[in-house]
Amino acid sequence: MSAPLRAGLIGLGMMGRHHARNLAALPDVELVAVADPQGDPHGAAPGKEILPDAEALIAAGIDYAVVAVPTAFHRDVALTFAEAGVHCLVEKPLAFDIAEAEEIAGAFERAGLVGAVGYIERYNPALQAMRSRIGDGQLGEIYQITTRRQGGFPARIADVGVVKDLATHDLDLTAWVAQSPYESVAAFSTRRSGRESEDMVSATGRLRDGTITNHLVNWLSPFKERVTVVTGEKGSLVGDTLTADLTFFANADAPTNVWESMASFRGVSEGDMVRYALTRTEPLRTEHEAFRDAVRGDASNIVTMREGLHTVRTVEAVLASARDGRVVEIEERDAR
Prior knowledge:
alpha/beta; Rossmann fold; Dihydrodipicolinate Reductase, domain 2; 2 domains; nine-stranded mixed β-sheet; globular; Gfo/Idh/MocA-like_OxRdtase_N; Gfo/Idh/MocA family oxidoreductase; Gfo/Idh/MocA_Oxidoreductases; NAD(P)-bd_dom_sf
């Protein structure tokens, strides 16, 4: 039996504390060291020395690291680990801008290291089941994917707006669910809270496979909503990631002889509805299991840094569209 992987964590803030809890309980992994120049405000790592930086984690002899520092510091921290030959799971988004994301992804690929991005929504049981059912052909051809992500303002966010903090989840999961990257986006945003960055955005898009998308995201709503709707030729799947529920609405043939005024209508009507029973495992735990397995050799269930780079490009396209009032085409460049 192989020895446990030695893991390190840098960043013990609001998200880092949850990473610490999961790493400490993860089978076949030993959380050997943690780091945060601000200390451990949430008591996430009791009994452990709080190291000052990435270099100190490397000196502790780790196999892989989880990076949960603010987005502005992702580049420097991730490149430090890449240079030292340490596999890395970086919290979303991969980097603050496209150039930094390209640099990080390229560094890990050239070094032959496992690099992943922490898009926790992909590991929600509802979306995992949704992706599996779509892959099995339950919906047939996919026509449209819509998401709604709304709620109150998170006081923890100070460095980015709602697009980089929240909409990045929807852009990633949509491309993943459809298994097709974005081709173009058009967006409108507004600022209503008095902050410098945008706090509401409405974005539409088209994936390379022709699927059209729509995303409504804000942190100014007095209720919380996390919904993904995928509509295809055989019906719709609706995933609620707050409750981890997945519901299927089947298409039914629309009879044309029962109502004279509808005789010219051709389409679908309401069919059967099924809500599936799912095993509700904590998404962050599933994410950590997937990255552990990737370091062991099975990288089939991680969000790769190349995917994370595409999402950063899409995020920047959304911001450019909202700023300039135009449709933005998303260009892919191979920075390897």
